[in-house]
């Protein structure tokens, strides 16, 4: 369409135009072009920040983005001599805010959230009310002082201003708190508050705005306002929950069209947001409720890939939104819509800080009575200090009708100053303050199976005790909900409903993760497993736990097999079960082989052990096939090395790498230097030999796949454990006798023979 | 240590007639003598509530036996019900010097067990907090260590995991075992691989729970007892 000039207006002489070879038609694409440029700019800015790696830890990204926005606004202002485009409040509320809230709601730790729900709710509702009214009234008091030239601002206007500026902003809180890693409890309090206070902010804002426009205010209006609050809050949540269930139900049937599964998640949550906005309910609460409801069920219905897609897409959207918001804030600051009044602005800032601190303090004293874990002063300080204002009040202030608010520009200026102060000063200083006050940080350990077990065990203990003493605690309600959930909801909303245990799913997750890592890397992991590393003080034995090998074997066969099976499914092959097992063994063999190779290459050895000591290790041998034995052998030797086995061991013991590595690595290296290669070989051969002896008879019956075998060996590496295991092992365990070292040559050939054989298996 | 120590204002005869009825329970809150764990702030109110509950469970007898716990409906659904009930009768928890299981417990013992779940006090100092925490963890440890030998062996651990997962019929035993084994390996790593490792000792257990603030989590609020009616 842009290839020719439009025909000249009719009526005049018909001018003939030649064919244009090359035309520029900017208005045609202006809007999408500009949007793309903005988003591109935002993303490039983000890249820029992370180039200098220390920067994000000192200055939160939000500050940098605002600075970029300021720069940009300045350029536009300078170039065009008019105010740059102000962030359209509609654009903000309808397009930029939902992705951020969705992302936050979807990944919210629900358990922690509900445990602290009372506190969060208390802070959000009563705290915001307190702040709003406090700031409004005190500002009104200031306005009464005629010296400041503010007497034309009425009480209602002040109250409205107070209500919009007291809203703690989820965007800003997220942006700042994500870097400082305070403990989850604190984080959830501040963040939860910022989400839930949307309800009260919406209500107060609309209330006071309509009051400002009404001539008289009757008592009935005040009651209407209170009723409105309940409707706004509860209505928003209900819409969210309803649409969340619908979304979960929809995903139950999407197994044939996996590709559009992620779309449903986004569509339904966005739908909940705009539906709530349509009724002037709280959109933020709706989308949060929808995301939290959807999360549990959708996660089980969608495929792994869809889940990953959802996760990444959500994060991407929210990241882009956040960046854009801050840049726009910077851009919108520059311009002619400001009115500066020292008194108003400074007192606004002062009152914001004072009332927030007072509010948190007073409210905490009250809520501590009901809390099981009282909040300390440090917590209170962080909560008060973390009450950051951001883009929500910014947009709300732009939405003020100028007819009713002749001093709108003053408000805008004041809001901007407060936002800048909180984002810059509080945002930058909160990290050193957190460190100075020694606030409990979150420990980002890897999730540990044993921890999960403990937690679950503990939950049950607590529930049990609560039942015994007849008390309804949190656990009681949670249990009741879980039962209801299992009985009705999960049956309805989840496609293949199998009762799920968090322990098992965590364990499986870890297994799969490590199996994938192993399969991808194809190398020994560099991280020594702390179990395999034992402290080699001279003369001390580091027995390798047979169970580790067993573990490894089991996990590998189970999960590597599964993973391979997954990929195979795309080939429309259906592997017969036994073929699959063979394949699994094959995989294991190859694994072993490659590990062995890399072992040899790296020539990393260590560990001397007196030959006698070696024997203890052979106590319990895996009963299965030569394969596992190979594995075991490999494992032992590799564990000697201290690093190779980790890849396998890591599968089972992901979380075992808890100890500081440096010391071990150093020790490894030290030992490695001391140990020559041949000894390594010797040990290896020993094990092969020993294992051969011990289990020759056992191999055939035990060629069944691993799951049925289970673990018969004890987990831990102690010889004593070995003996224990011997006791509780069944007859087919075989008696592994320690075998004296020598016979190098023969062993070597044996080993080779063994090695070669499995490789001849059809792949 | 008896209940008399808890409530010094109460006449010594009271422990014997707990079952009969508590006449004067208006005992002031007891300041804590440092040596007695139990006497730290179990208020008279709480004692009253618990006593009422005890009477319900024991059906107005003086002691409770294992069978009495069957009358709690919600407990049926708890996968580790056995261990919980067992914990009540475990002599180590009851602070008796001997070992093994008691056949029946009286109110004092009941209180003793319940005291493990007291909420943390704001005015506790470091040493008290530490002791507090250790006591709670010891309670949990005894639940794991069923054969009372002071160590959690692999078999016991497996037992625990199997019980925990027993609510899930689809789970194979091997999965439970592999999970238990994985967890034990973790334990071995934390607890130092250079000793002879027979099982998780209490010290190791402490280490493992280090990251989790058990003293704040492990409590039940004894306040709201109107819900007792539910037990029937």
TrEMBL record, chain A:
Cation/H+ exchanger transmembrane domain: from which residue to which, for each copy?
Answer: 39-435
Q: Where is this region: Disordered?
A: 598-648, 682-763
- Ranges of compositional bias, category Basic and acidic residues: 598-610, 682-698, 725-735, 752-763
InterPro entries (alphabetical): Cation/H_exchanger_CPA1, Cation/H_exchanger_TM, NaH_exchanger, NHE-2/4, NHE_CaM-bd
The record's subcellular locations are: Apical cell membrane
- Where are the membrane-spanning stretches? 58-79, 91-108, 120-143, 155-180, 186-208, 220-250, 270-291, 343-370, 382-404, 410-434
For membrane topology, the record states:
Multi-pass membrane protein
Similarity section: Belongs to the monovalent cation:proton antiporter 1 (CPA1) transporter (TC 2.A.36) family.
Q: What is this protein called?
A: Sodium/hydrogen exchanger
TrEMBL record, chain B:
Recorded GO molecular functions are: calcium ion binding; protein kinase inhibitor activity
What keywords were assigned to this record?
A: Calcium, Cell membrane, Cell projection, Cytoplasm, Differentiation, Lipoprotein, Membrane, Metal-binding, Myristate, Nucleus, Protein kinase inhibitor
Q: Report domain EF-hand positions.
A: 132-167
Question: Under the cellular component aspect of Gene Ontology, which terms does the record hold?
Answer: cytoplasm; lamellipodium; nucleus; ruffle membrane
Q: Name one GO biological process term.
A: cell differentiation
Q: PROSITE patterns, from UniProt? A: EF_HAND_1 (PS00018), EF_HAND_2 (PS50222)
Q: Membrane topology type, per the record?
A: Lipid-anchor
- Entry keyword annotation includes Nucleus: yes
Q: Which SMART domains match?
A: EFh (SM00054)
| Major location (coarse) | other
Q: Report the locations given in the UniProt record.
A: Cell projection, Lamellipodium; Cell projection, Ruffle membrane; Cytoplasm; Membrane
The record, for Pfam families, names: EF-hand_1
> Which InterPro entries does its entry note?
CHP3 (IPR052490), EF-hand-dom_pair (IPR011992), EF_Hand_1_Ca_BS (IPR018247), EF_hand_dom (IPR002048)
Gene3D superfamilies listed in its UniProt record: EF-hand
Query: Family, per the entry?
Result: Belongs to the calcineurin regulatory subunit family. CHP subfamily.
Official protein name in the record: Calcineurin B homologous protein 3
Identify the coding gene.
TESC
């Amino acid at each position: 369409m842009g290839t020719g000039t439009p025909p000249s207006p009719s009526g005049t002489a018909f001018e003939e135009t030649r064919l244009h070879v090359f035309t520029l038609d900017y208005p045609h694409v202006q809007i999408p072009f500009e949007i793309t440029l903005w988003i591109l700019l935002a993303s490039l800015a983000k890249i820029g920040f992370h180039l200098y790696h220390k920067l994000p830890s000192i200055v939160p990204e939000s500050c940098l983005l605002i600075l970029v926005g300021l720069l940009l606004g300045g350029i536009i202002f300078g170039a065009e001599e008019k105010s740059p485009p102000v962030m359209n409040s509609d654009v903000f509320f309808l397009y930029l805010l939902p992705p951020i809230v969705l992302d936050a709601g979807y990944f919210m730790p629900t358990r922690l959230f509900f445990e602290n729900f009372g506190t969060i709710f208390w802070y959000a509702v009563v705290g915001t009310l307190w702040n709003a009214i406090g700031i409004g009234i005190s500002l009104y008091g200031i306005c009464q002082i005629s010296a400041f030239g503010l007497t034309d601002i009425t009480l209602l206007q002040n109250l409205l201003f107070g209500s919009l500026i007291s809203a703690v902003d989820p965007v800003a809180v997220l942006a700042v708190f994500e870097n400082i890693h305070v403990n989850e409890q604190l984080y959830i309090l501040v963040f939860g508050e910022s989400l839930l206070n949307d309800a009260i902010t919406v209500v107060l804002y609309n209330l006071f705005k309509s009051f400002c426009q009404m001539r008289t205010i009757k008592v009935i209006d005040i009651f209407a306002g209170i009723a409105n609050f309940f409707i706004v809050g509860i209505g928003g949540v209900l819409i969210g929950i309803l649409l969340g269930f619908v979304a979960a139900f929809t995903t139950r049937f999407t197994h044939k069209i996996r590709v559009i599964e992620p779309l449903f998640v986004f569509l339904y949550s966005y739908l909940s947001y705009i539906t709530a906005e349509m009724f002037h309910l709280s959109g933020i609460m709706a989308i949060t409720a929808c995301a939290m409801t959807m999360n549990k069920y959708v996660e089980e219905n969608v495929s792994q890939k869809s889940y990953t897609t959802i996760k990444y897409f959500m994060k991407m959207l929210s990241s882009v939104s956040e960046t854009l918001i801050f840049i726009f804030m910077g851009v919108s600051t520059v311009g002619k819509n400001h009115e500066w009044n020292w008194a108003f602005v400074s007192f606004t800032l002062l009152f914001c800080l004072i009332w927030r601190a007072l509010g948190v303090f007073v409210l905490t004293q009250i809520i501590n009575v009901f809390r099981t874990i009282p909040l300390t002063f440090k917590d209170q300080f962080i909560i008060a200090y973390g009450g950051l204002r951001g883009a929500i009040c910014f947009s709300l202030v732009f939405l003020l009708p100028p007819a009713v608010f002749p001093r709108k520009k003053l408000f805008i200026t004041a809001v901007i100053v407060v936002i800048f102060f909180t984002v810059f000063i509080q945002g930058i200083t909160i990290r050193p303050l957190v460190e100075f006050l020694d606030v409990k940080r979150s420990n980002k350990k890897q999730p540990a199976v044993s921890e999960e077990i403990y937690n679950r065990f503990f939950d049950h203990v607590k529930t049990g005790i609560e039942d015994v003493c007849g008390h309804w605690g949190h656990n009681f309600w949670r249990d009741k909900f879980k039962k209801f959930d299992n009985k009705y909801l999960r049956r309805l909303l989840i496609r293949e409903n199998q009762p799920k245990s968090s322990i098992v799913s965590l364990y499986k997750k870890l297994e799969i993760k490590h199996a994938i890592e192993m399969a991808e890397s194809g190398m020994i992991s560099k991280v020594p497993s702390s179990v395999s590393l034992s402290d080699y003080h001279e003369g001390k034995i580091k027995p390798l736990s047979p169970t580790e090998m067993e573990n490894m074997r089991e996990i590998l066969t189970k999960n590597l097999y599964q993973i391979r099976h997954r990929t195979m499914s795309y080939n429309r092959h259906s592997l017969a079960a036994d073929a699959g097992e063979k394949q699994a063994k094959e995989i294991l063999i190859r694994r072993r082989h490659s590990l062995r190779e890399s072992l040899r290459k790296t020539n990393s050895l260590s560990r001397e052990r007196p030959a006698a000591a070696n024997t203890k290790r052979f106590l319990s041998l895996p009963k299965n096939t030569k394969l596992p034995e190979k594995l075991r052998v490999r494992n032992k030797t590799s564990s000697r090395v201290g690093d190779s086995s980790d890849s396998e061991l890591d599968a089972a013991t992901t979380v075992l790498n808890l100890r500081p590595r440096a010391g071990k690595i150093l020790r490894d290296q030290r030992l490695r230097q001391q140990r020559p290669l041949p000894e390594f070989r010797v040990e290896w051969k020993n094990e092969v030999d020993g294992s051969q002896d011990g289990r020759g008879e056992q191999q055939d019956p035990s060629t069944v796949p691993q799951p049925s075998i289970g673990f018969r060996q004890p987990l831990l590496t102690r010889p004593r454990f070995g003996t224990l295991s011997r006791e509780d092992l069944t007859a087919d365990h075989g008696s592994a006798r320690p075998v004296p070292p020598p016979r190098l040559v023969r062993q070597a050939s044996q080993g080779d023979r063994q090695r070669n054989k499995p490789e001849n298996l059809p792949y | 240590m008896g209940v008399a120590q808890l409530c010094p204002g109460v006449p010594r005869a009271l422990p014997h007639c707990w079952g009969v009825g508590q006449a004067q329970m208006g005992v002031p809150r007891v300041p804590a003598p440092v040596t007695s764990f139990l006497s730290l702030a179990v208020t008279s109110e709480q004692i009253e509530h618990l006593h009422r509950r005890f009477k319900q469970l024991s059906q107005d007898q003086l002691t409770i036996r294992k069978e009495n716990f069957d009358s709690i409906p919600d407990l049926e659904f708890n996968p580790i019900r056995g261990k919980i009930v067992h914990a009540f009768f475990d002599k180590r928890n009851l602070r008796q010097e001997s070992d093994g299981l008691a056949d029946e417990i009286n109110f004092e013992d009941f209180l003793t067990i319940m005291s493990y779940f007291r909420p943390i006090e704001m005015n506790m100092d470091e040493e008290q907090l530490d002791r507090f925490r250790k006591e709670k963890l010891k309670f949990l440890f005894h639940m794991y260590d069923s054969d009372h030998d002071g160590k959690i062996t692999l078999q016991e651990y497996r037992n625990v995991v199997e019980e925990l997962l027993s609510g899930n019929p689809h789970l194979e035993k091997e999965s439970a075992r592999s999970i238990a084994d994985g967890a034990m390996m973790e334990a071995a790593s934390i607890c130092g691989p250079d000793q002879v490792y027979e099982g998780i000792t209490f010290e190791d257990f402490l280490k493992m729970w280090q990251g989790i603030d058990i003293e704040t989590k492990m409590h039940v609020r004894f306040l709201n007892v109107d819900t007792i009616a539910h037990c029937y």
